[in-house]
Amino acid sequence: MRGSAGMASSKNGLSPVVVFLLGAASATALIVFVFTSTASPAWPTPEATPATRQEKKAAAVACAPRAKGIDSETRRAARTNQTGGGDDDDEFARILRRAAMEDRTVIMTSVNEAWAAPGSLMDSFLESFRVGENISHFVEHIVVVAMDEGALRRCRAIHPHCYLLLPEVAGLDLSGAKSYMTKDYLDLVWSKLKLQQRASMIVGETRGVDDEEHDARWRWQDVDLAWFRNPMVHITAAADITTSSDFYFGDPDDLGNYPNTGFIYFKATPRNARAMAYWHAARRRFPGEHDQFVFNEIKRELAAGAGEGGGVGVRIRFIDTAAVSGFCQLGRDLNRIATVHMTCCIGLENKLHDLRNVIRDWRRYVARPRWERQMGKIGWTFEGGKCIH
């Protein structure tokens, strides 16, 4: 869950320029087209040359914490994810395939124990699908990535598609509600980006490294976000990357828009896999910042061609906040709203409070006659809001 933190620095106070990254501590969801069981990279990434990949694999296995109370198959799958390898038994790819729609779309969300607890963010996230307009069927296509054992147990109690992602750092506890921009918080959000990169590699290998035009694609989305209508209708196939916005200024192609990577779409092409690797590698250039801040800093590099300073050459588009919305720039017309993200909001309790209120307002909206809804006079109540404004 991104909130937003400033363009100058994600640690400063709130303003139109300093609200860019507040809150990436929640779960994320990704929509993937997946049809292969192998997860090995099809090309070297900036962080893993062929010479060093085996060393990293050995180190990751050696320091992987043992998952107490989790079956051996789950532990093996989690170790596989850490090492970035896989074979025909790769659990991650098998879960993705089981959850896929007919068009091979999968929605993925990641949670830790705090977000997965009864009555917490995961419950509200799932509830929004049930009360939204013709979107309840998407729930059966959600894969929940658990960041710790407690989240996995809770997921398995209420949902059919669950996957354990163990931390890359030995002894790292990702189960609690992490304070914004702490080291554990940053390790959490960057761990999720590594999983996105791996998913892109899985899909990219399916068609071969030179096939840039196949129809596979995936979308990653935070869990502090309510679905009320299908947001996929706002995605264009013309772009390599489509992202929601913290601040949108009217032109979807304007790189001056401020992205919110809590809802981001990638075509699953080798070019976008390279963009993912570039994004993750850029973390070293911005120590102490999280993934969304770094994405905003490098968006022009990603869009530049290889001959324009070594860029990747992807086309990035931004979604209007009137439809795919958030608290940074909230859409007021409920007749247009597809999703609402708890952006520009710090703290699990604050986010959960306002997420519940947003769902309550939506229930009130859909309970009114159609003619009354179409008049556009039913809006958010803002009653007792912690962050909504």
From TrEMBL:
InterPro entries on file: At1g28695/At4g15970-like, Nucl-diP-sugar_transferase
Domain of life from the UniProt record: Eukaryota
Region of interest (Disordered), residue spans: 69-90
Pfam families: Nucleotid_trans
Nucleotide-diphospho-sugar transferase domain ranges (all copies): 138-197, 222-355
Protein name: Nucleotide-diphospho-sugar transferase domain-containing protein
Species for this entry: Oryza glaberrima (African rice)
